[in-house]
Amino acid sequence: MNEETVFSDSPAEVANTWLKAGARRLHLVDLNGAFLGKPINESVIRSILDEVAGEIPVQLGGGIRDLDTIERYLDDGVDQVILGTAAVKNPGFLHDACNAFPGHVMVGLDARDGLVAVDGWSKLTGHDVVDLACKFQDYGVEAIIYTDIGRDGMLAGVNIDATMRLAQSLTIPVIASGGVTNLEDIKKLCAISKEGVMGVITGRAIYEGSLDFVEAQKLADRLDD
Amino acid sequence: MMDIAIVDYGMGNLRSVAKAFEKVAPDSRILVTGNAEELLDADRVVFPGVGALGDAMRELESRNLIGALREVAQTRPFLGICLGLQMLFEFSEEGKAKGLGLFPGQVRRFADGMLDAAGLRLKVPHMGWNEVHQLKPHFLWQGIADESRFYFVHSYYVETSQNDLAAATTCYPHPFVSAIAFRNLFAVQFHPEKSQAAGLRLLRNFVLWNGTAG
């Protein structure tokens, strides 16, 4: 949290901009929540949902540690909650969440060299990312968001091989995340979409402008033609 | 003022559905309700839902909604969404749960490990944007180009023997029924309330529809 960049002070307006630009899905992270292990930005999240709910699916992560929080977010109009550290440290909680809210739970796994990291990447666990993802798949999670932490926010390119290996090992969809810099990354991901990579999350690259969002979406849309 | 009732029976949050209707029908009263009388009083009924068919039927039963639902599905503009499409059929393959049985057919799960013709590895759930191939003209398709993309998230799909029922198909990898139309009833497997402009247009069309076939 010591190196933060603020791109806008009106998240709802920003969300609306991406909606109008043709975004197919919105990925939200309560960064303060993730840091503190409890929801911090609920009113901001609600203002974003007011803008986009009823038009595109929204997924949200950051600081979700109990079933009540999940229920509140789903009632607010979030489609899928994303559990990260909580799922890894407390698989029982993930299991309960999948049973209580089928279809509404995703897991975000951050990994380096095939090992899962927790607590904002500060701790590397001994868990193999593919093994853990398979176990969570059996719990009934809807999708895995895979972030290669050698790369996220570093604009260093996507770890295509690691993303593909994970997607090949699972029957549920994988969303790639981390390291997207430019259209070349999107092209590489499109090339492995047939392995079951349903989408990619991009943040910094579209805010800083190294990736043209509209062009990227066009490229991804052409996959189905 | 027109009343649009959205059936609330504990299967999924209905906020995005309600929100979408607030956008396309600003002059209507949007009622999220699990009350049979309110359904019977409404001018239009929207039947959404996600989850398993068996659970959904139990929820409907416990709220005494089955009779009212059967009634409104045959008497006024009615829009089923996702599970609200599947529930209209006879039964579900898994768990052998019974549906409302308004149409012949069953609900089946996509097989794991499916590959399409190009070797595309198909995941279950079928999640994301996919093309909807319109099979016949209908008021609800007005202003929506054939093959437009809509947002899907489901592991089950409908298989019906009633050939004239399907209003659209979608490939995953084989064509499945992604919309049905029958008299005053229209139902879709995708989520128009999460499908950008095309979805809002379909909902707007539903609000304007007089409930006659075609």
Report on this structure.
The complex is a heterodimer of chains A (225) and B (214). Chain A is built from 11 helices and 9 strands. Chain A is α/β, with parallel strands linked by helices and 225 residues long. Chain A has one domain: Aldolase class I (TIM Barrel, Alpha-Beta Barrel), CATH 3.20.20.70. In chain A, a hairpin with a 2-residue loop joins strand 4 and strand 5. In chain A, helix 9 packs parallel to helix 11. The radius of gyration of chain A is 16 Å and the shape is globular. Chain B has one domain: Rossmann fold. In chain B, helix 1 packs across helix 6. Chain B is globular. With 214 residues, chain B is α/β, with parallel strands linked by helices. In chain B, a hairpin with a 3-residue loop joins strand 13 and strand 14. Classes of the chains: A alpha/beta (225), B alpha/beta (214). At the A-B interface, helix 4 of A face helix 1, strand 8, strand 9, strand 11 and helix 6 of B.
Biggest interchain interface, per-side counts: A-B, 33 and 39 residues
Instruction: Give the full name of the CATH homologous superfamily of chain A.
Output: Aldolase class I
CATH class of chain A: Alpha Beta
What's the number of domains of chain B?
1
CATH architecture of chain B: 3-Layer(aba) Sandwich
| The named CATH superfamily of chain B | Class I glutamine amidotransferase (GATase) domain
How do the helices and strands follow one another from N- to C-terminus of chain A?
Answer: HEHHEHEHHEEEHEHEHEHH
Number of E-type strands of chain A: 9
Q: Give the overall average pLDDT of chain B.
A: 94
CATH topology label of chain B = Rossmann fold
| CATH third-level topology of chain A | TIM Barrel
Helix and strand composition category of chain A: alpha/beta
Order of helices and strands of chain B: EHEHEHHEHEEEEEEEEEEEH
Binned, the helix content of chain B reads 10-25%
Give the oligomeric state.
heterodimer
Let me know the average pLDDT of chain A.
90
- Low-confidence region ranges of chain B: none
- The whole-angstrom Rg of chain B is 16 Å
**Shape of chain B from CA axes?**
globular
**DSSP helix fraction of chain A:** 40-55%
